Amino acid sequence: MMAEAPPLEQYSCGTLHPAYINQAHPSVSDGVVPREVCYKEDEVDGIYQACYAVEDIRVKNCGEFYAYQLNPIVQDGAYCVYNRKTSCEPKVVHAKYGELAVINCTLNSEKDFDSDEVSWTKLNSVTLPDESLSNVAISDDSLLVNIADIADQNAGVYALYIPSTATSELVEVILYNAVEASQKYYTVEQGGDVEIEVEFNVVPAPSPTQISWKKLPNKNLNSAKYTLSDSKNMLAISGVSATETGTYRCSIEFTVDGVSFTKHSDVIVQLEEEEEEEAGQKI
């Protein structure tokens, strides 16, 4: 695509008078649009003109490329065109609470790359770097974003943007649930046994003292029917009756970068006959 800013170095486009488009490129929906091309005059005796001659052109965004209808007017002039493409992989970054999440982008460009051109924004939030997201660090070349001790405030969409060539990339950062139940509903026959399992997506892994279980609304599980595993990631219920049916909550308390969090996951235990009765009522 044609440059949208005057080249900085003398003869950077291999000519005495490099040309660039002085307006933004159109979107695909704009169709064919008029634009102006500026010719730069290099420094002579300390005098510099970024746009000493103007050429009227037409431009169309064809999706994968731009098409230009040009009208050259300056001798020894040339159009500065950059083959610049960015790529960020993966497009979606998943992370556990407290671990390091990395947004990794690459840039292919025929133009000398100036990292100062790159800007990062957390959409609907802030331009990076920002004190409110002090755990986010951007590499010297601006293509790598490290999110240390990731937590709730870091989840969202991050946007890379290079204004001179209207190059952009979007990457979504998603946190796993701190407490993830292997299933939401457990159906067991009268007098049967059930094992409720959860996974903790927190780094470092929580100790048993940080984990608690209860039957909602507020029943402690001190009956002989209830058994917790040593790591408290599994609750076993034996001889299930109507008394043991209901909603069970596993909660975890943990700290990430000095900030305390309490997260939970709920699961429902029901008897098979309850499930059959509900089906009969619907019929």
Folded structure, characterized:
- The protein is mainly beta and 283 residues long.
- It is 4% helix and 48% strand.
- A five-stranded mixed β-sheet has the order 4-3-2-1-5, with no helix packed on it. Strands 7-14-13-9-10 form a five-stranded mixed β-sheet, with no helix packed on it.
- The longest helix has 11 residues, at 272-282.
- It is elongated and about 95 Å long.
- The termini are far apart.
Blueprint of the fold:
Elements (H helix, E strand, L loop, with lengths): L16 E5 L10 E13 L2 E15 L4 E4 L7 E3 L5 E4 L3 E4 L5 E8 L10 E4 L3 E3 L7 E3 L5 E4 L8 E7 L4 E9 L3 E3 L3 E4 L5 E7 L10 E5 L10 E3 L5 E4 L8 E11 L2 E13 H11 L1
Parallel strand pairs: 1-5, 7-14, 16-22
Antiparallel strand pairs: 1-2, 2-3, 3-4, 6-8, 8-12, 9-10, 9-13, 11-12, 13-14, 15-17, 17-20, 18-21, 19-20, 21-22
Order of helices and strands: EEEEEEEEEEEEEEEEEEEEEEH
Question: What does the overall shape look like?
Answer: elongated
Low-confidence stretches: none
Mean pLDDT: 87
For the CA atoms, what is the radius of gyration? 30 Å
Beginning-to-end CA distance, first to last residue:
64 Å
Instruction: Give the biggest sheet.
Output: 5 strands, mixed
Structural class by SSE content: mainly beta
How many strand segments? 22
Question: Largest beta sheet: what is the strand line-up?
Answer: 4-3-2-1-5
Strand content: over 45%
Number of helices: 1
Helix content: under 10%
Features:
about 280 residues, mainly beta, 5-stranded mixed beta sheet, about 50% strand
Describe what is shown at a glance.
By secondary structure, the protein is mainly β. It contains one helix and 22 strands. The radius of gyration is 30 Å and the shape is elongated.
